Every structure is written in C-alpha cells, then in structure tokens.
Amino acid sequence: MTKTELTEALRRAFPDGDVEVTDLTGTSDHYQARIVSDAFQGKSRIEQHRMVYAALGDAMRGAVHALALQTSPREKR
User: What are phi and psi of 12, to 5 degrees?
Assistant: First the structure.
C-alpha cells in the first residue's frame, strides 16, 4: 500500500479529518499517521486507534506492516 493509497483510505474513513501520513522507511509498509477528527470526540485513545484499524481492514493484516498512530479529536471552539 503506497503512502497515497493509505492517505486516501484514511481520508475516506475520516472525511472531516486532518490526515498526515509519513512513510518511515521508504518501503511502503512502515508508516506514521496523524489524524485529527470529530469522529474521535469522546473516545479513548484505544477506541480511536481501533477505529483507524477497522477503517484500514485487510491492509493492516498484510500490506501495512507497522503503523504508528497519533489520533485526537478536533478541539471545540
């Protein structure tokens, strides 16, 4: 899964979110993702990460070997 494909999958799952993806090794299987989304409001960090893993589905069982996550709800104004 390329960085672009991963970014697009996360943007589809969190359409209101700010999504940033970094390829950590250049091998297209170790990534870092930062996602800020209203969907995370009221959710624990574990719940937020489970939402991301669910959104990526089978990619997490094969194409993506490692994914470092930074997730947070959007701050209320």
Answer: -65, -40
The answer to whether residue 31 sits within a structural domain is yes
Which CATH number characterizes residue 61's domain? 3.30.300.90
Cross-strand pairs, 29: none
Contact indicator for 21, 6 with CB cutoff of 8 Å: yes
Question: Structure pTM?
Answer: 0.89
Q: Is there a domain that residue 8 lies in?
A: yes
In whole angstroms, what is the distance from residue 31 CA to residue 66 CA?
6
Write the pLDDT tens digit of every residue in 8-47.
999 999 999 999 999 998 888 899 999 999 999 999 999 9
Structural domain range at position 26 = 3-72
